[in-house]
Amino acid sequence: MIQLFAKFHHSKGGWATFARFAFVGVTISTIDAGILYLLLTAGIDPYLGRFVSLGASMSAGYLLNRYFTFHHLETARALWHSLVRHYSVHAVGAAINIGVFSVVLVFGQPMGGEIVTATILPLLGVWIGGLAGMCFNFFFSKKLVYDN
After folding, report:
1. In 3D, which of 47, 60, 54, 64 has the Cα closest to residue 133?
2. I want to staple 39 with a disulfide (CB 3.0 to 4.6 A). Which of 8, 22, 43, 49 is the partner?
3. What is the DSSP letter of 11?
4. How far is CA 94 from CA 31, 47, 74, 100, 121, in A?
């Protein structure tokens, strides 16, 4: 099992890289949703909570993608320069993510009851928004953040 993971981790193929990116996406989605629900429990507005949770998950995503997903593409670029590129690219992905999250909340509220709106809808918005943002972020991260 360890050898299979090592082979997957060291593969430079496009599908393996995307699979690692998607794995990181699931991980940071869990971080995002976990922080969001903690903030919602504390009485924070869902939009403000999502802004905070998305920022935290973007930071975790940078570290995971730098050392797990795109480790084979990393050049000698300074950490600071790479971080600026990461946040620039992912800010656009985050705008897509937040836009989809907002659409899910706005259109989902009339369809669900109060319990659904408070419990399931934010999680659904995180997942759907995350998928939309992930597609954008993968292409531009590979080309602009972790390029050769």
Report:
1. 54
2. 49
3. -
4. 15, 13, 23, 10, 18
CA gap 46, 75 in Å, rounded: 38
* pLDDT tens by residue, 74-103: 556 677 787 888 889 989 998 998 899 899
End-to-end alpha carbon distance in the chain: 30
Burial class (CB in 10 A: 0-12, 13-18, 19+), 86: buried
The whole-model pTM stands at 0.73
Return the amino acid letter for 15.
W
Number of domains in the chain: 1
Supply the range of the domain harboring residue 23: 2-145
Radius of gyration of the chain (CA): 16
Q: What is the DSSP letter of 13?
A: S
CA separation (Å) from 30 to 5, 26, 27, 146?
21, 6, 5, 24
Written as six digits, the tokens of 95 are: 């705008």
